[in-house]
Amino acid sequence: MSDPRAPGGAPPSAAGEAGPLPGAPLLEIADLRVAFASEGGVARAVDGVDLAVHGGETVGLVGESGCGKSVTALAILRLVEHPGLIAHGSRVRFEGRDLLALAERDIRAVRGNHLALIPQEPAAALNPVLTVGSQIAEVIRAHQHVTRAVAAWRAVELLTSVGIPDAEKRAGQYAHQLSGGMRQRVLIAIALACGPHLLIADEPTTALDVTIQAEILELLDGLQRRLGMAVLLITHNLALVAERTRRVYVMYAGQIVEEAPTGALFAAPAHPYTQGLMAAVPRADRPAERLAAIPGQVPPATAWPSGCRFHPRCPFAWEKCREEMPPLLPAGEGRSARCWLLAERQGPDAKTPSPQGASGGR
Amino acid sequence: MRALRRGWLRFRAHRAAVAAGLLVAVLAIAAAFAPLVAPADPLAQPDPVALQNQPPSAAHLLGTDRFSRDVLSRIVYGARVSLGVGAAAALLAVTVGALVGLAAGLASPAVDQLLMRSVDVALALPRVFLILLVLALWENAPPWVVVLLIALTGWFQTSRVVRALVLRLRESEFVQAARALGSGRPGLVRRHLLPHLAPTIIVSATLDVGNIILLESGLSYLGLGIRPPAPSWGNMIQDGKDQLFSAPWVAAAPGLALLVTVVAFNLFGDGLQAAFDPRDRR
Amino acid sequence: MLTYLLRRLALALATTAAVVTITFALVHLAPGEPFVAGAEDRFVPPETVARLRERFGLDRPLGVQFARYAANLAHGDLGESFARHRPVAAVLAESLPNTLLLGATALVLSLLFGIGLGIAQATRAGTWADSALGALALACYSVPAFWLGLMLLLVFGEWLHWLPVSGMADVTLRVPMDGLRHALDVGRHLVLPALTLALVNGAAVARFHRAAMIEALGADFVRAARARGLGERRVVLRHALRSALAPAITLAGLSVPALLTGSVLVESVFGWPGMGRVAYEAIFARDYNVITAVAVVAGVLVAVGNLLADLGVAAADPRVRRA
Amino acid sequence: MDGERSAVSGTRPLLEVADLVVHFTRRTGLFGTRRETVQAVNGVSFAIGRRETLGLVGESGCGKTTLARAVLHLVERTSGTVRFDGADLAALRPAELRRARRRLQIVFQDPYASLNPRMTIGRAVREGLEVHRLARGAEADRRVRALLEEVGLPADAADAYPHEFSGGQRQRAGIARALAVEPELLVCDEPVSALDVSVQAQVLNLLADLQVRRGLSYLFISHDLAVVRHVAPRVAVMYLGRIVEEGPADALYAAPRHPYTQALLSAVPVPDPTTRRARIVLPGDPPSPVHPPAGCPFHPRCPHPAKDQTCLTVRPELTQLAPGHRVACHKA
Amino acid sequence: MTIPRVVVCAALLLAGCAGPARRAGEGATGGTLVIVTTGDADVLFPPAGAVTTSADVAGLVFSRLADLTFDLNTVDDSGFVPELARSWDHPDSTTLVFHLDPRARWHDGVPVRAADVAFSFDVYRDTLVNSRFRPNLDAIDSVTVRDSLTAVFHFHRWYPEQLYDATYHMKVLPRHLLDSIPRARLASSAFARAPVGSGPFRFVRWEAGAVIELAADTAYFLGRPRLDRVIWRVVPDLGSAVGVLLAGEGDAIPLIPPAELRARVRAAPTLRLVPYPSNAVAYVAFNLRGRGGKGAHPIFGDRDVRRALAMGIDRATLVRSLFGAEGEVPVGATARAQWIWSDSIRQVPFDTAGARRLLEARGWRSGPGGVRWKSGVPLRFSLLYPTTSRLRQDAAVLLQAQLKPLGVDLRLQPLEFTLFEERSVRKDFDATFQARTLDASPASVLQLFGSEGAPQSNYGSYASPAFDALAHRAIAAPTRVAARPLWREALGTLNEDAPAVFLFSPPVAAAVHRRFAGVRIRPDEWLAGVGAWFVPPRDRLPRDR
Question: What residues pair up with E380 in beta bridges, in sequence order?
Fold first, then answer.
């Protein structure tokens, strides 16, 4: 296998120009709702999310902690555990099949096979008592009819392909013997084991140092280009989204509040939340300036505010925002946002490009 | 999501713990007010020939034993022994264990090592064998000696747990913060360590009570704990063992009382642990 | 590894020394003397007692006795049993293997029972089945072993006649027997006492293992394993169980003292010719050398149990295996 | 190393750290039978003047948290000195040390761990007042309320427990606790890395306001170069227990001299899809502080084209390249 | 005075009488007897064995010179049947000559010779061997060998029980196997673990704590026993032991005191209870002296108070409560198995009113809490009993409740056996609860209450010249007929002085599987007749074949 690591610095090719890709989406989520019963009441962690990923593209799902983005990832794989429940009427279509309607056996054949997940914490997502090689091999054997020996050989090969030197030796080691970056490479190898068509990367670099993070992201980019898979990148880090994705969904309080091509979003965010978020991010490439913080806190999932869920923290909120929840409204070409400003065409004109877009999300 | 689930479990455990706690309270009250609760004198032998081994009836709700004594009354009085020995020994053991653990956790590494190596050795001592040895070889030990023996051989584990906790707390950021504020050692112990040790200590004491009740019953069953004619559940089982077929209630009733009590304490302890434990740590 | 073994050895030696000293002090400082009461409550004349005391060196000062005992012990000489007129080593050689057989069987059974129950509960956590199994575990955990033994005896021995009620072998079978028949015979006798100990001890294992399993099942790597499309059996038995084994193994190792204690009571209930009975009888006969030897053996067994637990944990969990 | 040099010339710096070394042993290996020495902080010198902020940047394991605790004398230092307002903390007697501690305080990274969960926010803030007998009774209540207000918490927060608050609010409480004893220097150990972006900005702004209002000095430790850039006019970069570069933020961010700083800066993603920069990807992982490499600690990963035998054998000292800009690199 | 007599195998001539059980039976041999015992043997070397199981096993492996018949007459020579000795005679009043049976063989085939007898006596008397039977042989000066088949016993003086003393306590040991072993090591020798004797059964195996097996000696010179095997199976708990019996895993238990267990045996279709006279008695001995044996005891120094206590104890109820209908209230310091037992011995009657009057008369008045006081001393005393004895503990509990209404505050003081024994011997007690298994010979009574007897076993320091004189005369009486009235008088005197209250004789009954025929039990040695037990072929179980 050749060294899959991309030469440093090359930008991902597709990220620049955004446009609708032809054909049916690879993954299509419609009205996804996930609720948890808890002491404090019912937490509607994900509350009517629509989202689509087309073959080969990289889509970002960005939001702060508690907004429901990780639960969305789990719900796609139908891994929401008791006491969480995916509501009836939610749909997750992957390669034409509704994952939520599949038999347990059949969904298992999808997980880790054509639809793979790179989990959040590389330290926790590897079984500490099994060698990393065996954990890769077992995924291969779960989805492909190969012998133990072939699977083991493939495992070593995969480790090499994700840039782990001395892969044969590493395959026989345990997670605690590897550094954080190595662990994440192993997890990527596991995710790639069966040649997935869609990779869900849930905060793949949050637990890593900046330099390692860069390495991992370069690796992912290279692999994606080579293997032609789609990636759903879930993160809280706007900068990552800006650098790595083609389209972005912004989540807040269990809902998608904005969807847009990456370039357009960063050029002119439509939703006040997105605007606030961008203003609050400190930047290493700019001299110190006072940050524009969003006031208040993210509300708890058991008590979403009425109306627009962002209204208590929104500088533009008025009566209607408090009473009525805005739908996703068209906000330009290929983009939409969940904000009454778009309907009323009023508010901070300077910041909001609000021409009526012909096409919407869906 | 996990926090939510754990919360639900905790709630459920709470209810069982509340029930168990109530039961423990009822038992304790019954034991404390035994003379008022027990229908008869636990030592009275109305007619050791005609009324011996009577099955349960209106007059004797749990029947009578081979001496025509009222089994229910003996169980009520026996609760004094079981709960008394259990509670006293557990309290003493846990107190000693907590103090040693605290001392080791706060002391210099040398003292700490000395204490903990001693505890290592002590933990490997055949505890029950030694208790048995003392009780068997020494003259008729009064209950407080039993308590003392059980307690003094039962604190090692607690001291280890407490020490580990102290060491962890010492490294915790809020203790570091308190040290940075200039808090002295007594203040640290009072304000930061004890409130965190308390749940562990309380839970460990509660669970200990159950274990000690079992231990005491075993000793009494061997005829070495509480000596007749004073009733204790262990010696009542021994009393009834030979009549297991003709008068099963004599052995069954105290056995059941033992089971229920120990279950109650364990359930209560588990519940406390669950209630104390997560404390919403994210 | 070597350092570890040396440390273990040092601990075991310290424990043995402590056990010997404490036991020696307890038996010698206790009121009452050996030989005074003959077997079966018989009176022994004072001159006989005096002769026996002289023969076993009990007329020397305590310090001398202790030094002699310690010196002999260092040479592996456990002395002679007062009551049995035999070397203590011979007495233990007969009874210890039986206790070890019972204890080891109970240990294995309790691990199987405890781990099985823990898995069954953890995979059903929060359901009524979990509660029901939890109640079972709690009951087993809270029941006095001697009482449970009596009840099992009553049901399986006396009422159902399924299993022999006492002893270790069918005494009426002609000796010598071929190995297999002997093993089967001993096995049948082993069922009830081992089960009694295993239920009580296994319940403790189950309580810990359930918690460990629940934690493991909630761990990220288990969810990750599911996300890779692995079957539920594989997820539970390979991923969760393997990583949750350590506490159960540790507990099993630490339960050696409990098993020894339990065997004192259970051996008497089931007439198992083991060390527990030897110990119990020795205490009442003031058979000093046997008492001390039993304490030493118990200390050694505890040390071995801890060692096995450590090695078991190391085998089950590579994280502690480092270096 | 010339530790007596101060960045703020003329006046005596408030905090002066010279040749600070912190090693500690830990047990590892099979059942803790092997001891190893972690060289967490390996000869660090810097100074902070009054009302000044020094940003300290480094990746995990570089020793920055140990450094923070050593500055506060919360861990034993192996060698070197920490002078606060001229006084060596290590030389103080316990009572004096306690008094000195009033003047330098710490804000921790994890707002969930740094507050005692069994203590109300009010009691936590009050603890410092009581320890140093600054106020009692109603006066203490009033001061606690004022402090909470100052950090942007509602006054009734005093009676609530930490778990009733969000991360940002807890971090505010942690700051209030530190402020209660009216310190002059605040060591902020990753104070915002556990917080969400929107809240992180609130806390950063709060810290900036407090500095102005109270004339505080900050030692601001973070792994996040972007955050540091926002708070610190002067920045030091740490690698494997040592400072490898120190200088004015503008100069350092615009033209980093040390190859590590260069790589670090290049790796930071920028929330702007239109900018593209060349990225330096460092090979391998940082070495373990148990066995730091000989020579330049960075040499095994150093991408510098001129790397040579000197780098492998001789440890570079911090040398001044421009006024106030020091770099520890043979090739810089 | 001396009457030399020759007893020629009387029992062999009188077929069917209470004669020797061990002889050739007609019909088929076969059968396995599994005895369930609560205690393992200690040493199978007869002089050293201290526990019942050892004695039981040794009794079958080894032989005596002559054995007692079933009526346990220890006085007359007519009470004995030959064993190793074919006959015996008294050439003079201090000499007893035994003529050995030339057919007698050790299990290894070596013939039994007079030298073995002399050797055995030596061993039993050797202080290095430290046999507990040594005191029983005190009256014998020496044993000499006249020829290979004739052993001569030399006594210090004449007395009626010479034959009993010469034969009963001493088993004959094989000199050729033991001679080379140092005396002090005999008890711990390999022989003591795997003995070779000359009795009806030969040793097969012993697994400590579990099983001892004997097999019939087919070459036994008095005719092989009819059973093939006798196996002891150790089951430490009596309840479990009965369980083993009920489960069909055992055949016999010698003694079952608890009424409940006896009821279970009785209800079992495969088992039968074989009652036999008790040879045990339990009594509360009062300390007549002050603590440590000095002065008079403040309570028990007064004969009337002792009598009052005796009157206040309802022994019949106590016995019935403990044993149901089968218990027996002892008539005095004896037991049913002893030939001196008589229902006409004078006793203190049960009379609580009388007891109260007597106490009042002696100045013991009712005080606070219903306890009587006299000159500042409460009528309160502690009763020592050993923790090992369930029966005594139960009886003490009953006693405490019985004495309470009389104004007597009885405190129970359970002690571990050694401590119990030590304190009893040191006279450091108020009252001690003793139990004695009595010898077949009534002479033992003098040891318990005689003033010059063994001071250690006369716990209460009872000293009565009248009793001493009567007992000595009774012991010296040459025949049972002459001795009986004297014993009756002696025991009556003892009862009236009430130095002790004889509370109960536990009912003794063996549980034996119904398939065994010919079962007869001798109270002193329950397996003495086992040679005659057999299993009719149609009743045999798999293990009998």
Answer: E409
Retrieve residue D316's tokens.
Answer: 């570079």
Q: What is the pTM of this model?
A: 0.81
Task: Determine the Cα–Cα distance for residues E526 and E287; give it in Å rounded to an integer.
Answer: 34
DSSP SS3 for A202 = strand
Q: In 10 A of CB C239, how many CB atoms?
A: 25
Token reading at A82: 């008791």
D17-47 confidence digits (pLDDT tens): 999 999 988 765 545 556 778 888 988 999 9
- Collapsing DSSP to helix, strand or coil, D36 comes out as strand
Report how far residue E411's alpha carbon sits from residue E427's, in angstroms, rounded to the nearest whole number: 17
Q: Is C28 helix (H, G, I), strand (E, B) or coil?
A: helix
Q: Which two tokens stand for residue E68?
A: 């007692």
Amino acid, single-letter form, for residue D250: D
**Within 10 Å of residue B5's Cβ, how many Cβ atoms?**
20
- Residue E225's H or E segment, with its range, is none
Which residue has 């203790």 as its token pair?
A: B175
Q: How far is Cα E445 from Cα E494, in angstroms, rounded to an integer?
A: 10
In this structure, what token pair is assigned to residue C47? Answer: 């001159």
Q: Does the distance separating the beta carbons of C227 and A139 come in below 8 Å?
A: no
D191-248 pLDDT tens trace: 888 888 888 888 999 999 999 999 999 999 998 888 998 889 999 999 999 999 999 9
Chain C residues within 8 angstroms (CB to CB) of chain B: 11-12, 14-15, 18-19, 22-23, 26-27, 30-32, 125-126, 138-139, 141-147, 150, 154, 218, 257, 260-261, 264-265, 279-280, 283-284, 286, 291, 294-295, 298-299, 302-303, 306
Any idea which residue has 């040695």 for tokens? E525
Q: Are A72 and A46 in contact (CB under 8 A)?
A: yes
According to DSSP, residue B172 is labeled: S
Which string of b and e fits A85-114 if b means at least 16 CB within 10 Å?
ebbeebebbbbeeebbebeeeebbebbbbb
Cα distance between residue E16 and residue E520, in whole Å: 12
Strands D234-239 and D242-248: antiparallel
E543 to chain C: closest CA residue: C172
The residue ranges of every structural domain in chain E are 11-275+509-539, 280-504
* Strand bridging mode A198-202 / A230-235: parallel
Tokens of A183: 């662990």
CATH class of residue range E280-504: alpha beta
Nearest to C229 among A108, A126, A129 (CB): A108
- Assigned token pair, B213: 């009740």
Residue of chain E whose Cα is closest to the Cα of C86: E188
Residue ranges of chain A whose pLDDT lies below 50 = 1-19, 346-362
**ipTM score for this prediction:** 0.79
CA distance E417 to E421: 6
CB E524 within 8 A of CB E286: no
Task: Please provide residue C275's backbone torsions phi and psi, each rounded to the nearest 5 degrees.
Answer: -75, -30
Render E9-48 in DSSP notation, one character per residue: -HHHHSTTSS--S-SPPSS----EEEEEESS--S-SSTTT
- Tell me the residue type at B274: A
Q: Give residue E461's region: left, alpha or beta (phi > 0; psi -120 to 50).
A: left
Q: What gap in Å lies between CA D200 and CA A291, rounded to an integer? A: 10
Amino acid code (one letter) for B251: A
Kindly report the CATH class assigned to E11-275+509-539.
Answer: alpha beta
Q: What is the CA radius of gyration of chain E?
A: 25
Cβ neighbour number for residue C83 with a 10 Å cutoff: 22
Nearest CA in chain B to A38: B4
C-alpha distances (whole Å) from C174 to each of C181, E35, E44, E230, E445 are 11, 16, 22, 12, 46
Q: Do domains E11-275+509-539 and E280-504 have the same CATH topology?
A: no
Q: Which value, to the nearest 10 degrees, does the dihedral of the CA atoms of residues E51, E55, E56, E59 take?
A: 180
